[in-house]
TrEMBL record, chain A:
Domain ABC transporter: 2-225
Keyword Ion transport (UniProt): no
UniProt-listed SMART domains: AAA
Source organism: Terribacillus saccharophilus
InterPro entries per UniProt: AAA+_ATPase (IPR003593), ABC_transporter-like_ATP-bd (IPR003439), P-loop_NTPase (IPR027417)
PROSITE patterns linked to this entry: ABC_TRANSPORTER_2 (PS50893)
Chain segments annotated as coiled-coil in the UniProt record: none
GO molecular function: ATP binding; ATP hydrolysis activity
Pfam families xrefs: ABC_tran
Keywords in alphabetical order: ATP-binding, Nucleotide-binding
Protein name per UniProt: ABC-2 type transport system ATP-binding protein
Keyword match Nucleotide-binding: yes
TrEMBL record, chain B:
Pfam families according to UniProt: GntR
Gene3D superfamilies in UniProt: Winged helix-like DNA-binding domain superfamily/Winged helix DNA-binding domain
Name of the protein this chain belongs to: Transcriptional regulator
Sequence ranges assigned to domain HTH gntR-type in this UniProt record: 9-77
GO molecular function: DNA binding; DNA-binding transcription factor activity
Keywords of the record: DNA-binding, Transcription, Transcription regulation
Domain of life, source organism: Bacteria
Length: 229, 125
């Protein structure tokens, strides 16, 4: 469904990704791991069409990715970029006007599930609740690709847990592809189908997690320490 | 089913093992409906694809049956239930004996120990 063909990305003199070949299938939850600056966000932005490769091509369903890919890709940025004077409900309503594939009933369902008050202003939300709001907005779009850049980062364990449960409950694992980057391996260990490791801009390994356990009796953490040591 | 899984063993096998035990112990009875894939995924906090695979494996072994549009049910076939019961017993015994042998116990000692334990246990019941 998503294919990187010999993709490199340079920012000025710095190489963020080097000669990456990658194939991602639909219906999978895929983790993207690597140290800070390894190229995780760059990989996500290339799929979202927010940046273009310096070399090679990124394709979705055989079509070259451009900015218009936004109609097929829901992207959760690691930044907070919502209007602080809106309430939770107004933010949801605003998103519904921006994306024709936005499912308001689903948003309401997830909001209730996440216990997030609809009338609180975004500027008054705690960090954890802003994290929940991002999840609501990302999962409510009925698109084939969900990209989540560090959805668990900086959140307390209870919030991380509710986000992981939200993913299990609301992602359509038959139709949607989820690519999420994270440092919180423990939290996502049980929900990943595949895991991809990047190191210094290069893709070092891409594994089916259950096969990794079956073939090598290794969990993701052990596998990672063998790569990053 | 909120206990955690071992991260170094396939989750779909651990989940299948758990369900087999629930069936043998009678926690899940013949003809009972298993929770939906999504429900099991949420309650055990694992990927729905993994649960799907577990259900497929259990179906292949005959211990559960999926009925179109209705869900997955524990089999009422007694032969299959008995053979699973026997299989789990053999597995546990094998593990136990393996551990005892690894520590250097002889068969006679093991048998005696078991007998004493079981008879003692019966008295205290």
């Amino acid at each position: 469904m998503i294919e990187f063909k010999n993709v490199s990305k340079r920012y000025m003199t710095k190489t963020a990704l080097r000669d990456v070949d990658l194939k991602l299938d639909k219906g999978k939850i895929i983790g993207l791991v690597g140290l800070n600056g390894a190229g995780k966000s760059t990989t996500m932005k290339l799929i979202a069409g927010l940046i273009n490769p310096s070399k090679g091509s990124v394709e979705l369903d055989g079509e070259k990715v451009t900015r218009r890919i936004a109609s097929k890709v829901s992207y959760l940025s690691e930044l907070d970029e919502y209007y602080s004077f809106y309430t939770v409900q107004q933010t949801i309503d605003f998103f519904a006007t921006q994306f024709p594939d936005f499912n308001k009933e689903k948003a309401e369902e997830i909001r209730a599930y996440m216990n997030l008050d609809a009338n609180t202003k975004v500027k008054h939300l705690s960090k954890g609740n802003r994290g929940r709001l991002k999840i609501i907005l990302t999962l409510s779009r009925e698109v084939p690709v969900l990209l989540m850049d560090e959805p668990l980062s900086g959140l307390d364990p209870l919030v991380r847990d509710s986000i992981v449960k939200g993913l299990i409950t609301f992602v359509d694992t038959e139709k949607q592809l989820v690519l999420l980057s994270t440092h919180q391996i423990m939290e996502v260990e049980m929900i990943l189908d595949e895991v991809i490791a990047i190191k210094d801009g290069e893709l070092v390994d891409h594994r089916n997690v259950e096969e990794l356990r079956y073939d090598e009796q290794k969990g993701i953490l052990e596998w990672m320490s063998s790569i990053y040591e | 089913m909120t206990d955690t899984f071992q991260s170094s063993q396939p989750i779909y096998l651990q989940l299948a093992d758990r369900l087999n035990r629930q069936i043998v112990s009678g926690e899940l009875k013949p003809g009972d409906k298993l929770p939906s894939v999504r429900e099991t995924a949420v309650s055990s906090k694992v990927n729905p694809n993994t649960v799907q695979r577990t259900y497929r494996e259990l179906e292949a072994s005959g211990i559960v049956e999926s009925r179109r549009g209705q869900g997955t049910f524990v089999t009422e076939n007694e032969d299959i239930l008995l053979s699973i019961r026997e299989k789990l017993k053999q597995e546990q015994i094998q593990n136990f004996i393996q551990v005892m042998h690894d520590m250097g116990y002889q068969n006679e000692e093991i048998k005696e120990g078991l007998q004493t334990y079981l008879e003692g246990g019966a008295r205290h019941d």
